[in-house]
Amino acid sequence: MTKSPKRWAWKIFFLFIGAIFIYQLWILGHVVFWNFYDPSTSAFMQERLGIMKKNDSRAELYTQWVSYEHISPHLKRAIITAEDNKFLEHEGFDFEAIQKAYKKNMQRGKLLVGGSTISQQLAKNLFLSDKKTPWRKLEEVIITLMLENVMSKRRILEIYLNIIEWGNGIFGAEAAAHYYYGISSVSLTAEQSAFLTAMITNPRFYDKNRNSPQLLKKMNIILNRMALINIP
Prior knowledge:
- By secondary structure, this protein is mostly helical.
- Helix content is about 60%, strand content about 5%.
């Protein structure tokens, strides 16, 4: 006796749900693992490396992991100031910032401002592509909740500072400090930290345009607000 199309449809549906569940467990396993061990790469880093290798097969990423204690507190303050000034208060999402970003984008008629927290950005960089789709955004929310419930704010910030992009193939605070200033990230001054932080919205562009008036304006705004920020 052959199975009805309806039974086949239900079977496929449950297989699909099961696959999604297994995928979420796979991600959760990585989140738990990375709470104790440092990630050596991320989805975004691999995506950028693939693009770079199309132009130069010998291309490599420049990155060097350093512990939280070996990153300048100035840089930590600058990053939180610019990217997520309620980082220590929220549980993964800053709904006020999301609402403000939505209003600005609606007024301008295009997506110019984001409201993502550091935790959301980390979720995206570690696991997801840069494509803006409803499924990707939903997955970002799920991973953000995992990060916030498994990791401390200190660990989230530590990983974030070690994997974000600071230029073409330049990833992480230590690599950025060496590349731009020839020093270790622990030695970054407040001014240097504000400058590097101002770059991260468009690091490859600002690497080539380091005297951009817009970049210097952003640097000064960050520098003037940093003293008000607490860090993990």
